[in-house]
Every structure is written in structure tokens, then in C-alpha cells.
Amino acid sequence: MANTDARVSFAELTPSIALGALDGRYRGAVAPLVDHLSEAALNRERIHVEVEWLIALTDGQVVPGAAQLTDAEKAYLRAIVTDFDGAGIAELAEIERETVHDVKAVEYYIKRRIAVAPEKLGADTNLPAVSELVHFCCTSEDINNLSYALMVKGAVENVWLPAASALVEQVAGMAREHKSVPMLSRTHGQPATPSTIGKELAVLAHRLGRQVRRVSGAEYLGKLNGATGTFGAHVAAVPSANWPAVSREFVEHLGLTWNPLTTQIESHDWQAEVYADVARFNRILHNLATDVWTYISLGFFKQIPVPGATGSSTMPHKVNPIRFENAEANLEISCALFDVLGSTLVTSRMQRDLTDSSSQRNIGSAFGHSLLAIDNVAKGLTRLAVDENVLLADLDSNWEVLGEPIQSAMRAAGVAGVPGMENPYERLKDLTRGHRIGSAEMIEFVHGLGLPAAETERLAALTPATYVGLAEQLVDEHLA
């Protein structure tokens, strides 16, 4: 047995080696989420919320005697947020090692910068005098719930939604391009009424688009009301203030929806709602990935080889549908995480427990796997070409699918008084079920029905490739 003790320890290498695939192999595809859903992003939003709360308390003269801040002083405070960089991240981590409390570390980080403000703004600055208004009357969750709401809102609106919307439009574009290309459908895996490639892609684009619109309309709730949601400390400190009004104005100033009734935590119901919608998008996209994978296996789509790429380590002819397979796996992981988050975050023991604190640190992974899947599907679709010869050959091998329109026409003719139209379904069943028939047999059958001449000619001219109903029209009218 090999001596594993002699191996290099990857845990000690610099730069550090990622444990997870999102921060390692797939970093490039998900990197935009780091600005919104990483631990550093959480701390930046905490600083942002704390700074804006300090400004709000002084702006509105909420706390009697608090100095009104100048524009320069407000700019100095807001620069603490915009200037938060690698050095700031390291400093904050150092403070947290002492406090063993992440939000308290943020408070001290801001107070350090307020303490040195006279060096930048002059000795007469009012900032040191209002230093104790940092984190005033706040419980940690007042800061955290607002920070997470801003993080998720930013990630959804600036990263996930643009990627998802672009993919929907990509699928819709393919649907429009191929709206007239006939294909044999398969219900229960068996040959069925033909459709078009475009119409089937339009169904998926329409479904995905509905979920995008739901996510676009999401509400992001926030609260700032103290340790058990009663404004207890606020009223004790400044009984003259209208604290619910102050809270509401502040939450809405941040671009969030105010939640007036909470325990210590904001209830997170909005998160469960957003995650359910994103997970539903994921599941529909999973449906697209598996359908396209199947169409590739049937030869309906040809994959355009990437120069230099290897499909198989031993079979040089292969071009594997790896983009769609990768997407399937990542969509399943994303859905699992969103499902857990949605079910966990809506519950809390009495007025507070910390399960949400641990759970919410996985939001980035849930969105990351979804974003990676979207990226893979988008890239996979660009490497596809429709093989119309395969589609037409498949249709021409299944003339029995015309049993449906012909027996339906016989029913209509019988109702109109044409004689000899009895038992249309049974007669087509005898002709087609379990039998392979071609154009000659179908045309002979139609000519022997005794239908009016015009109806006979119309049905005799029908082929599997032309029996696509209103597929093209449906794409034009409903895929806006």
C-alpha cells in the first residue's frame, strides 16, 4: 500500500485549493455571484446597512441631540462600504477572531474608521460624537435579514435573471427558426402525432418564461424592530420617536419591502417563495436538457464538434452531449439546496434559533449550481444543428400516425350525413395497430372510404410531414 503520509498536503498550498467545484473547476461560470452571495459580500452588505442606519438616525433627528451629518461626512461613511476590499476583509476577519461574533465585528470595524475620521475630515467633524449610534437599538438579525435580502435581490436581479432571460430568448429564437421543421412526436416513447421542432422548443421557452416573470416580480422583505420584534429597546431609549414609521422608511430606503410583524428574525417566507420559483425554473430547464439529450440520441439534432475536443477517451467518433448532462446534475443539486432552504428557513423555534444562520450561507451554492446549468445549456444549444433528413426519414417510416386525422375526418363526415363512415376508430385500428404501413396503403384506404372527392383528395395528399396542425401558427402567436 502506498504511503499517503508522504504526499503533499493540498490544504497547506498557497493559493488555497477549493474544496467545492463551484469555487474550483467551475469558478469562471459562477464568479459574478461572488459579488453578491459570498461571505465577503455578506459583510459588505452588513457594513452598508449599518452605515445607512447611522445616517438615517442622524438625518431625521430621530435621536435627540444627535448631530446632523454633512454631505462630506455621509460620503466618508459610505466610502467605508465602497472601499471594502481584500485588506478590509482581512481586517474584519481579525476583529471577528477577537469578538467571536460576526456582526459585532462589523460594528467595531465601522467604529475604527469613525475614530480616525478627524484625520480626513478635520478636527471639527461630528462623526466621533455619533459613534455610539452605530448598531443603535439593533439586534444582529436586524442587520443580517436586511443584508441577506439585499444580497439575494442583487444576485437575482444582476446575475441570475439576466442569464435566465437570455437563455429563454435563446430557446425562443431557436423555436422561431425551426417553427416549420416537422418532427415525429413520441408520447409514451411511441410514434405519435407529428409536431415541429420549433413548436416543441416554444413550449419549453413559454414555460421557462413564466417562471422568469414570477422571479422578476419577487418581493424582498426586511425588518428592523429589535430583539423580539417589539421595538422594546427603541422605545426605552427614545420614547418620543415613531419607531415603526422610522423602520418602514429605512427598509424602503434600502429598496426592500417592510415586514411589520416578526419575531427576532424576519420570517424568511419571501426567500422560500423566490427559491421555489427558481427551483421550478430549474426543473423545467432539466426537462429541456433531457428532451434535447433524447433528440440528440435520435439524430434529430447533430452536435457541431468543438475543434480539438475529445468525445470519448477510447471511441474517437463520439461527440457526447456533455453540456446537457452537466446541466442535469447541477440542476438537481440546485433544486435540492433550494428545497432544503425553503423548508428550513420558514421555521424557527419560538422567537429565534440559529438554524437560518447556517442555512443561509448555502444560498450562493444553490444559485451557483443553477447559474452553471444555465451556462451549460446555453453553450450546448449553440453547438446544435437540426438534421432535417433524419427527421423526414423518421416521419416517412411512420405513416400509421395518420390514423388519427383520417378517423377524425370520418367522424365529422358521418355527422354531416356521409354514408359508410361507421366505426372509424376501429377501422383505422385494424389498419394501423401493430402494422407498418406506407403511403400506398394509406392512400388506398382513403380512396376506398367513399368520402366526397374534395375530402378524399385532401386526406390522400396528407403525409406525416405535413400533419402538423397549427404548430407554426402557435409559435408565431404565443411566443412573444
Short characterization:
Helix content is 59%, strand content 5%. The protein has helices at 27-30, 34-37, 39-59, 71-82, 86-99, 102-115, 117-121, 140-177, 197-216, 232-237, 243-253, 269-298, 322-345, 355-360, 363-382, 388-396, 403-415, 424-432, 439-447, 453-460, 471-478, and strands spanning 182-187, 190-196, 221-222, 257-258, 301-303, 384-386. Helix 3 crosses helix 6, helix 8 packs antiparallel against helix 9 and helix 17 (403-415) runs antiparallel to helix 18.
Description:
With 480 residues, the chain is mainly alpha-helical. The chain has three domains: 102 residues, Fumarase C, Chain B, domain 1 (Orthogonal Bundle); 234 residues, Fumarase/aspartase (Central domain) (Fumarase C, Chain A, domain 2, Up-down Bundle), CATH 1.20.200; 65 residues, Ribonucleotide Reductase Protein R1, domain 1 (Orthogonal Bundle). Helices cover 59% and strands 5% of the residues. A two-stranded antiparallel sheet has the order 1-2. The protein has a two-stranded parallel ribbon with strand order 3-4. Strands 5-6 form a two-stranded antiparallel sheet. Helix 9 packs parallel to helix 21. The longest helix has 38 residues.
